[in-house]
Amino acid sequence: MSEKTPPVLRESATFDRLTIQEIQRAAETGIYDIRGGGTKRKLPHFDDLLLLGASVSRYPLEGYREKCGTDVILGNRFAKKPIHLKIPVTIAGMSFGALSANAKEALGRGATIAGTSTTTGDGGMTPEERGQSQHLVYQYLPSRYGMNPDDLRKADAIEIVLGQGAKPGGGGMLLGMKVTERVAGMRTLPIGVDQRSACRHPDWTGPDDLAIKIAEIREITDWEKPIYVKIGASRPYYDVKLAVKAGADVIVLDGMQGGTAATQEVFIEHVGIPILPAIPQAVQALQEMGMHRKVQLIVSGGIRNGADVAKAMALGADAVAIGTAALIALGDNHPRLDDELKKIGSAAGFYDDWQNGRDPAGITTQDPELSKRLDPIEGGRRLANYLRVLVLEAQTMARACGKSHLHNLDPEDLVALTVESAAMARVPLAGTSWIPGSQY
Which family, according to the similarity comment (predicted)? Predict the structure, then answer.
């Protein structure tokens, strides 16, 4: 008697297991899912681009004898004291509250060793971070939590935050378990109560008000500090033009692969655009205004290695910013924490519950015992090592393209592997001279 062929189980592409699981979770709890980190879906990214190394038509540079510059000056449009960084990789804004005080100190230490800047984030400036940061950018956010004019003057630059790549158009969250006495005191909040940050600034309704706010901050800081404007990537062509017209010295453009301390899962995965198509739109806006390289462009959202840095700069960025990668460098999601992460329902390489304050690495927590696990000196050393590798990798690629400075990379050094990425990045499809949508 012949055996029956077992039925083939076919999973739905629309209602796959993860979708079914989320529907069931929503039905059981009646609340939306909140998490940290960035989008997990596969998106067009720098991996879809390749750099064209030199051979006969281009002349490469010798790595051991010919220099490849990496420095960048930020904010020389109007500021009396622009920032001169040794490397074009900066640390993005991440708040004390979302991160432990030790983590903020470690970021400052690592950035200083590497010769770059770090950024405060929501909730104000901590003495630990200011004390260990040679170049500190102070974020001025819609919530105004911890905002202090004296701290504006202590900073080396001011970043007015209009949006974030993981949640453009939305505000952040800080759950009550992370609102300790110190965090609550800095933010003027009740201890242990969930906090939601505003999605827009309370004292303006449009770009004209942004110009007024920039002028106010310049007066407060005696025109010394560069003023950045940070936007979440949604409509970068128009947003960049308006920010430049309002008087920004530097534009910070954050793509949807950027991380967040906590927000709705549906927001992270479905709002905004990737950094790959955002950069050319921003560069086009700056070029049309005659402001490319005069108003510097910092891009962020999924920067992982030196190849990403080189490709971003070839597309027209002046510098990049890292957030999630910096936390990983400090020790987030380290394999040695796997057993502890499994006890709280996660695993090394998967942990994204940054909002709940139970991070065994001592980074995204306010628990005093967990926070002690992160040695800020060792964390700073690890971050500095990682930044050094990023820059060395980017230099290696720039030299291979025959460039004596990272800023000399340009779109002609790039090709795309897919039609979609070619259209988004506005570079030729590999093996052709075709740029889809070549009216750009």
Answer: Belongs to the glutamate synthase family.
Residue 267 lies in a domain: yes
- How would residue 44 be classed by pLDDT, with cut points 50, 70 and 90? very high
Mapped onto helix, strand or coil, the DSSP state of residue 154 is helix
Q: Is 211 exposed, middle or buried (0-12, 13-18, 19+ CB in 10 A)?
A: middle
* pTM for the full predicted model: 0.96
Residue 26 identity: A
In whole angstroms, what is the distance from residue 160 CA to residue 141 CA? 6
What percent of the chain clears pLDDT 70, i.e. is strictly above it? 99
Question: What is the span of the domain harbouring residue 366?
Answer: 34-423
164, 233 contact by CB (below 8 A):
no
As a whole number of angstroms, the distance between CA 317 and CA 34 comes to 32
Contact, 355 vs 172, CB < 8 A? no
Interhelix angle for 236-246 vs 275-288, to 10°? 40
Tell me if 382 is assigned to some domain. yes
Task: Tell me, rounded to whole angstroms, the distance of Cα 56 from its chain centroid.
Answer: 37
Q: Which residues of 125-158 are buried (b: 16+ CB within 10 A; e: fewer)?
A: bbebbbebbbbbbbbbbbbbbbbeeebbeebbbb
Whether the CB-CB separation of 318 and 296 falls below 8 Å is answered with yes
In a domain, 431, yes or no: no
Which residues make beta-bridge pairs with 69?
Answer: 405
Q: pLDDT tens-digit profile of 380-419?
A: 999 999 999 999 999 999 999 999 999 999 999 999 999 9
CA 426 – CA 325 distance, rounded (Å): 27
Helix (H) or strand (E) holding 203: none
CA dist 100 and 75 (Å) reads 29
Phi first, then psi, for residue 188 (nearest 5°) are: 55, 55
- DSSP letter string over 68-100? -B--EEE-TTT-SS-EEESSSEEEPB--BTTB-
Q: How many domains does the chain have?
A: 1
pLDDT digits (tens, 9 = 90+) for 63-99: 888 999 999 999 999 999 999 999 999 999 999 999 9
Mean pLDDT of 248-268: 93
Domain containing residue 297: CATH number: 3.20.20.70
Q: Is residue 259 part of a domain?
A: yes
Q: How many angstroms separate the first and last alpha carbons of the chain? A: 68
